Description:
Layout: E1 4-9, H1 15-25, E2 31-38, H2 44-51, E3 56-58, H3 70-82, E4 87-90, H4 99-104, E5 109-113, H5 125-132, E6 136-143, E7 153-160, H6 167-197
Helix pairs in contact: 1-6, 5-6
Amino acid sequence: MGRYRLAVLGSGKGSNFVAIARAIAEGRLDAEIALVVSDRPEAGILEEARRRGIATCVLPPSRFHSRLDPEVEEELARMLKEKRVDLVVLAGFMRILKSPLLTAFPNRIVNIHPSLLPAFKGRDAWRQAWEAKVPVTGCTVHWVTAELDAGPILGQREVPVLPEDTPETLHARIQEAEHELYPEVLQRILEQWTREKT
């Protein structure tokens, strides 16, 4: 059996993508990245993928701020199927997915969120945690469902909020935790799938 094929979707600089690619290169994640997709042509994740010789795709502009046009999402689902993608990995993808992708990849889309869900859903979760003055926050990997940041939780990592923290320093430490947690959880998912197949 070949290695599981991942598609990574991101809108930003791609630090979680880099962590995943590094885990694959170091043998900690038994997968291959078939495609990197972004909704922003200037996104750093595309440059990181190209430097590694990984195929990239830039989605056309959308009429909506927070989600993709339905026809764009349908075309993306078709492309991912064509690439024989097993698992769709959201890494800072700032669009809410709707039925075309959720239907095409049921229980096959994962996301990482910078809080201990169910606390602090939505945007800038690290800033929400800092403003709420909680002693601990962190990050969560979860299955993606139709409800925002509400799918079943696959793994979490705690990060203490320090007295001297700013939102930026807190976010940086949460991202370090994300870079450890995400490849570990992805490997667990793929190991589970392999066991179910045998």
